[in-house]
Amino acid sequence: MGNYTWCIDFSSLQSSVALIQKASLGTIFGTAGKTFSNLKFTFLTIITIVMTAKIMTYSGMTQDIAKAIVSATGSMYPAFAPIVGALGAFITGSGTNSNVLFGPLQSAAASQLSTDKDLAMWLVAINSGAAGIGKMLSLNLSPSLLVLFSQLWKSSTNVTMYQKHKLRKGKKQSILPAS
């Protein structure tokens, strides 16, 4: 239980803050219930990914895939390791899922290449960094991309409205600065 005491402390801190803000217990538990209800499919997805990764690792599938990849790429595998991480995040839409699925694969591939433990650590780190890049390029639009596209759309709409306003006043004027 010693490792999980910080969870209890954080939970009690959140409850204390909510009570200081004069939220009723019904509001606190209602909000927590809505949050868990909204996240039920997220929890299910993460649990499924972790189960799949564990089954693959315990059954030896990860080791077999690592052997196949290393035999195909040889000593050049570390150059392909970031592709595995980025592809994992691109397909799953999550860097965490990519790390859970392909972290053990990177470690197994490193053990196929060398007995050096540092190589395994570096390949897993490369997998994690590339997963971040893969997530940015993922088809599951991340919140940052949604914000970017909405701002671009908003600014293009504002420019169009500005041009229409100037044309209505009879002043045909460019919005671009004079060169």
Could you explain how this protein is built, in words?
- The protein is mainly α.
- The protein has eight helices and no strands.
- α3 (40-59) packs parallel to α6 and α4 crosses α6.
- The chain is extended and about 60 Å long.
- The model has no long low-confidence stretch (mean pLDDT 77).
Outline:
The protein is mostly helical and 179 residues long. It has helices spanning 5-20, 25-38, 40-59, 61-73, 77-92, 95-113, 117-136, 143-168. The radius of gyration is 25 Å and the shape is extended.
Would you spell out the secondary-structure blueprint of this structure?
Layout (H helix, E strand, L loop, with lengths): L4 H16 L4 H14 L1 H20 L1 H13 L3 H16 L2 H19 L3 H20 L6 H26 L11
Helix pairs in contact: 3-6, 4-6, 5-6, 5-7, 6-7
